[in-house]
Design a protein that fits this description.
26% helix; alpha+beta; 6 helices; two-stranded antiparallel ribbon
Amino acid sequence: MRAMWTGAISFGLINIPVRLFSAVQSSTLNLDMLDKRDHSNIKFKRVNENTGKAVPYENIVKGYLMDDQYVVLDKEDFENADAAKTKTIEIINFVKESEIDSIYYEQPYFLEPQKSGLKAYTLLREALAASKKVGVTTFVLRNKEALAILKPYGNVIMLNRLRFEEEIRDPKELDVPATTKTNAKEQAMATKLIDSLTEKFSIAKYKDTYTEKLLKTIKEKAKGKTAKKVHKMKVVHTKSDDLMDMLKASLQGRKKAS
């Protein structure tokens, strides 16, 4: 794996040199964009708006538009904005992980200690596990300040990036019912159906079956086979009067399956 960031965890007066790695990888197929006329690969170029000519990557800089003029920024400008946060994962405080709503979780990363920080890294990992708490931290990744938590994940300290509060949209804009018109019997039946479908969670049980089926289709097309046509799925609008009957049928189907 290739490190995305190199710096240190700041834990009180202790600095733990670490390297940051992505903890996830895509399970989707890598599909290329082609010209349908001759299947030539579509390429994207960074071009100069005025000349229309391609610009080499080394000649590209970043700028902020202010008063109709660009203020060009270089690497030092980004670091000078907050030198500490560009190289330090600073632990601000510790909280119970259960207090963090899942909507704030964004991206997990693994932190690998460098040799000089092995003992301190292990100390922090074991202290987090013993306290059953997570460290709330901020740092700068790709010129953007990030909020995150630190938690043990096996033998690794995992950094899970969080969204800031202002990044979450207000659901009040959605047209959803404030109260329910279901009766007590329907509610009890729905709860019973949930109970019948409840089991211990295991991530290994769930697979990306869509990608698997898509790859199968690709292999069949490569052999000249025609993909089987399937009926298009339609959204069925259920009448509220049918809820009780459908709940009963769902429970009966669940009993037969088990």
